[in-house]
Amino acid sequence: MEPIKTIQSRTVVMPASNIDTDQIIPARFLTVTVRDGLGKALFADWRYAADGSANADFILNRPAAAGCSVLVAGHNFGCGSSREHAPWALLDYGFRAVVSTAIADIFTNNALKNGLLPVVVDAATHRWLIDHPGAEVSIDLQTSRLHLPNGVAASFPVEAFARHCLLNGLDEQGFLMRHLAQIERFENSRDK
Amino acid sequence: MTARTMFDKVWSAHEVVAETRDTPAVLYIDLHLIHEVTSPQAFSMLRSANLKVRRADRTLATLDHSTPTRSEQVFGRVPIKLDAAARQVRQLEENAAEFSVELFGLRDARRGIVHVIGPEQGATQPGMTIVCGDSHTSTHGAFGALAFGIGSTEVGHVFASQCLLQRKPKTFAVDVDGRLPRGVTAKDLILAVIGQIGVAGGTGHVLEYRGATIAALSMEERMTVCNMSIEAGARAGMIAPDETTFAYLSGRQRAPRGGAWEKALAAWRALPSDAGAKFDAAARIDAATLAPMITYGTNPGMVLPVGEAIPASCGNPAYDQALAYMGFHGGERLLGKPINVVFIGSCTNGRLEDLQAAARILKGRKVASGVQLLIVPGSQEVKRQAEAEGLADVFKAAGGEWRESGCSMCLGMNGDTVAAGAYAVSTSNRNFEGRQGVGARTLLASPYTAAASAVAGRIADPREML
């Protein structure tokens, strides 16, 4: 995985709360056996009309959204299923971070393992971002701070180990596999 | 010694390495359940890293999510209609064979929804850690297990190491007292809990459902409650094991026997939270005040007693969008609104008692004309029992369709879908936009309410038919 230090981008704003994983990628797109190429299914039911044409009203179909890699979303983003296809689809589309006041647990875990940064900020910072769609923001993972163009910076929590892995481009599995001897001892002690 | 919660006891018994400020805990997993949709990428990861499934003996696979429910497709008289689904089914068969994982295959008499078969086989036991690449893994918490959903990368981690890297969640006590009124079920109870604490109310927490009402529930009812913990955002839901739990498990295929059973019982009896154990959060519900519940919006927290009016718009665009999607208005009553489809099944309400409840309403009645009633058992075992008891005959006589087991119409990826704009009263767990099919409008309710609505052809209060 590529190390992540800072993410700099204009924002796309989807203010609705409780954007669930069935909206991020509907279940009918989960009949794949690979993880690549899911960006085209991202927000499919909002993004496309029944005939497959782009729905012009949807935020991602507007010219201003092109090239944006930071998604600002309403409270409780990513609630619902455990499908890792949700962060896979967001990443494949081009997003690198999701900013909200709350992000669902399983989605957060899945996002961190794939290099999509979940950024939970305070309500005032979130309000500002919602009110200023397209704002150029900078997210610094080293300091865990999101910088707004008005000079204000908001800190956000990131689990320490996931942060270490993201900053250094490490895979969490490597760390886990270094514990195999301890895992075996644990199993042996339980079997007694 | 300090009083400990049940969650604390299960957690600490599985810590291979405790968490530190810099690193998460290495948590041992007793049972890893897998299915065709979230496992292929994890098997690919194993293959590319040249790894094995480390503990195939702690891994159990089934086919449920994209698997068809039409008998002719399951039993091979005609091919599986959806090519991609057929590919996933084949892929899991190949992966299970290659990595020596036990699979309840397409025509296996033990096959069913992953959260129905675990308990049914006695594989789900108190005090265990159980994971699956599915958020409704919380179901297994009904046995006093710590059970939660994980993503495909984590499925790979468990394959390779039988462990997960986890931060310890917080605890949340949900106390329920009072007797559930007639016609009010475990489904109504959990919908009321979600309505009260909200769809993000449990985020970061493991819920423990406690109190006299919970203790009086059957195992199947407890599973319905724990199943929807994730709909409150919770990491997991748990219920203390007791005599009801032990009676359910005793004699099941994979439950311990003889001396091992006695030893297990002693350990299980020590699991419940100690008196005075501290929880990080708490909520309280009086079950005696509850009515049959039904959702009116596009998340399970948008729920009300079936006879009440939809809350008025408060200027929140997300609320207005949800009502617009559903074709409803603030201030309207749901009771009496026409419906198109009724789905009875899923890991929430696809067990035998759920089908018995539906049959109680449907016996001697007919499904209203123009309404499709689909009844899908949670497992092939549930199907056999329902047929042996004559429930399937009741459903068919009423005009319902009776299928093979699977996730079916809960998530619209296996050929069973609700048409755009159609209203479906469903015993499943999610009323998200498009969940049951593009443009489908889902109303979550109990098997009683679903069956009563099928008969009425409209949203109905089941108490009038009981």
Overview of this structure, please?
The complex is a heterodimer of chains A (192) and B (466). Chain A has 192 residues and is of the alpha/beta class. Chain A has one domain (6-191): Aconitase, domain 4, CATH 3.20.19.10. Helix content of chain A is 32%, strand content 17%. Chain A is globular. Chain A starts with 5 loop residues before the first strand and ends with a helix. In chain B, the strands form 5 sheets. Chain B has a 5-stranded parallel sheet with strand order 5-4-3-6-7. In chain B, strands 17-16-15-18-19 form a 5-stranded parallel sheet. A 4-stranded parallel sheet of chain B has the order 11-10-9-12. In chain B, helix 2 crosses helix 6, helix 14 (352-362) crosses helix 16 and helix 14 (352-362) runs parallel beside helix 17. Chain B starts with 5 loop residues before the first helix and ends in a 10-residue tail after the last helix. Chain B has helices at residues 6-13, 40-48, 71-74, 83-98, 114-120, 152-161, 186-197, 212-215, 219-227, 243-249, 258-269, 317-326, 346-349, 352-362, 380-388, 391-398, 447-456; strands at residues 15-17, 25-28, 31-34, 59-62, 102-104, 129-132, 146-149, 163-166, 170-177, 205-210, 236-238, 281-286, 293-295, 303-305, 341-344, 372-375, 401-402, 423-426, 441-444. At the A-B interface, helix 4, helix 6, helix 7 and helix 8 of A face helix 2, helix 4, helix 6, strand 8 and helix 12 of B.
